[in-house]
Amino acid sequence: MATEVKVPVLPESVSDATIASWHKKAGDAVKRDENLVDLETDKVVLEVPSPVDGVLKEIKFAEGDTVTSQQVLAIIEEGAVAAAPAPAAAEPAKAEAAPAPAAAAAPAPAKAAPAPAAGTDLPPGARATAIREGVDPSQVEGSGRRGAVTKEDIVNYARSGGAGKAGGARPEERVPMTRIRKRIAERLMQSKDSIAMLTSFNEVNLAKVSAARKELQDDFQKTHGIKLGFMSFFVKAAANALQRHPIINASVDGDDIIYHGYADISIAVSTDKGLVTPVLRNVERMGFADIEKGIAEYAKKARDGKLGLDDLQGGTFTITNGGTFGSLMSTPIVNPPQSAILGMHAIKERPVAENGQVVVAPMMYIALSYDHRIIDGKDAVLFLVDIKNQLENPNRILFDL
Q1: Which residue of 66, 148, 223, 328 is surrounded by the most CB atoms within 10 Å?
Q2: Is the pLDDT of residue 83 over 80?
Q3: Which CATH architecture has domain 180-398?
Q4: How many CA atoms does the CB half-sphere of 392 hold within 13 Å?
Q5: What is the DSSP string of 39-60?
Q6: 19 - beta bridge partners?
Q7: Exactly one of 372, 379, 386, 400 is catalytic; which is it?
């Protein structure tokens, strides 16, 4: 019986998807729930699994094609068995028909297939690039999902002088943006062009937060099965502050301001394909363990390419942590239709004045970029001071002060 494999139902905010890569070819045996094809939208990469066991009889669209919701991607013959490979004895038969002297047989290994042929499981784009650049894919470290070698990996290997034409003194390669990267670019330009954006800064002494983590880490991990990080302190402090400064949690819709009575906080996560912002929902009701587990789950799903569209929808406020990469200070860009974003940065020990004495403390600069159309400087500064007061006195977080 023939079974159709269709594009999943896409949400209203996603009009179509691009076929990123097929993991099977026509005639291959497939198993139920085995990933057949990756679809790239402007927000996330979706995996389309096989609905049944059988043989992939027909592929309707090639890599790079654009598809929409519920279009048929492929046909699977349910319960069928893939054709058996040709007998191994067939190749030696040719050798018997045209015997060659033993001395002439010795050089044969040198005429093996070109290096790229070793990567027969490469995506077509990567395989073609490997042939063009004269690169052996087996020598390239893959950065794709599950360690797969991508076209970009081949190009970078060649540019670094590994092999091929791109190893010259002035290498260039034109690589099209992925849909996710194009969408990121569009959103950033939308933010720049449509929002009157301003950034305010403050600094936070994290000595007491560091001491609390050190004191409670073992018990927290034994009780909840996860480490207590800095991020949960910031997320919870932000959720508390958003309740007290609702304009920071609001958004603009035409001539209206929408006030959200909940804190759905987007957490910026860096992936190989770009920055994504999965959403922790109703953070005002969450405890530290729930926040840490939610962040850890999203980080794992992002690394594995398993984030779903529902994970990325919504969000009333965003937190981004450039400090993980060593950033000391930055001006983060607001993610529309949100009106503000909090930027965390690297923790650095610096001399500071405390009770008339100079002490060395773990300090962090924090930044709030905001939409000046609805958020005044006073509101932004008071919000940052609220965050600062909570983090410098962690008991305020626990008691919502």
Answers
A1: 148
A2: no
A3: 2-Layer Sandwich (3.30)
A4: 16
A5: EE-SS-EEEEE-SSSEEEEEE-
A6: 39
A7: 372
**Measured CA angle at 172 (ends 171, 174), to 5 deg:** 160
Q: How many CB atoms lie within 10 A of CB 313?
A: 14
| Alpha-carbon span 119 to 138, nearest angstrom | 7
Which structure tokens are listed for 223? 């009780």
CATH top class, domain 2-78 = mainly beta
Domain boundaries, the chain: 2-78, 105-167, 180-398
| Residues 105, 99: Cα–Cα separation, whole Å | 10
Q: How far apart are CA 324 and CA 154, in angstroms?
A: 28
Alpha-carbon distance values, 348 to 228, 329, 389 (Å): 20, 11, 19
- Winning range, highest mean pLDDT, from 29-38, 54-63, 208-217, 301-310: 208-217
C-alpha atoms less than 13 angstroms from C-alpha of 189 in its C-beta half-sphere: 6
Distance (Å, whole) CA 180 – CA 273 = 7
Greater confidence (7 vs 94) lies with 7
Which ranges in 14-122 belong to alpha helices (H)?
90-97, 102-105
From the candidates 121, 219, 304, 376, which is the catalytic residue? 376
- The answer to whether residue 372 is catalytic is yes
Q: How confident is the model at residue 119 (pLDDT cuts 50, 70, 90)?
A: very low
> Of 163, 158, 151, 154, nearest to 125 (Cα)?
151
Does 376 qualify as catalytic in the annotation?
yes
CB 19 within 8 A of CB 61: yes
Residue with tokens 């922790």: 280
Strands (E), 90-245: 197-205
What is the pTM assigned to this prediction?
A: 0.65
Cis preceding linkage at 337, omega within 30:
yes
Considering only 10-24, 218-232, 336-350, which range has the smallest mean pLDDT?
10-24
Amino acid at 142: G
What are the Cα distances from residue 185, in Å, to 65, 203, 359, 387?
A: 21, 30, 43, 30
